[in-house]
Amino acid sequence: MSAAFDTIDRDILLQILKDIVEEDELSLIQFLLSNTHINTRINNADINAPFTSNVGTPQGDGLSPVLFIIYLEHALKEVRKVIGEPKSPLEEKIPREIAYADDVDFVGLEYIDIDAVQRTLHKIYNLKVNLKVNIAKTEKTLLSKNEDAWRSTKKVGSLMGDKEDRRVHGDVDFGRTWKEYKDGFGDINGDFWLGNEAVYKLTNQLLANARSGTTDLLRRQAMFYPRATAPPSLSATLQQPLDL
User: What is the tens place of the pLDDT at every residue in 176-193?
Assistant: First the structure.
């Protein structure tokens, strides 16, 4: 897409968020998107007075990427409605689209399917949600055992051919089943994985230990304050280590 953050329709975004966030959160987001101004500068010299902007989200903050993902997912839902359900059992086994940030790949069994998606994107993106498809960066890739052109196609910063080589010759074991990753496999002297449940329990235990240590630190520091004095905040406690 072109200038993805700069083209978001704020009114549409706020309508989408009404069904997702609480009222207080929505008010805060609305406040952050209100009364935004843009100033044009060339060679560190302002060339005009600031003007009000009513589209797009700010760049450089932590919230805007999340808002964009929510906005893009809304657009993809509209695309799925037009495309319809998979037409064959094989289509049901493959993902309809693969998205990473503002890059979206649509997957089909034939070029005609991708052409239909491209026409739909223009109707949904450009006309309904004000997202701009970057035609210059749009390309079709045919995955085939009989052709190697796909190997030079770049996805998420890497050539697809390089990824395939790593899959075949690398250390990542793509032959493992989901059950093996869930239950664990191997031993500590070689390739091994504790299992999803064990990792979950271990992570929770580490968090519990961290909370327990923080609570103990607060108790010990409270001994140094008179009863009439309010105990320090957690952030202040962590910033002022004691000599015990």
Answer: 666 777 788 777 676 777
Contact 17, 33 (CB under 8 A): no
Q: What is the DSSP string of 103-163?
A: EEEE--SSHHHHHHHHHHHIIIIIIII--B--GGG-------TT--GGGG-EETTEEHHHH
pLDDT at 23 over 80: yes
The domain locations on the chain are: 4-143, 162-211
Helices 10-17 and 23-33 pack at an angle, to 10 degrees, of 170
Judge if pTM exceeds 0.70: no
In terms of CATH architecture, what is 162-211?
A: Alpha-Beta Complex (3.90)
Give the DSSP H/E element, type plus range, for residue 235: helix 234-239
Beta carbons of 2 and 133 less than 8 angstroms apart = yes
Distance CA 225, CA 221 (A): 7
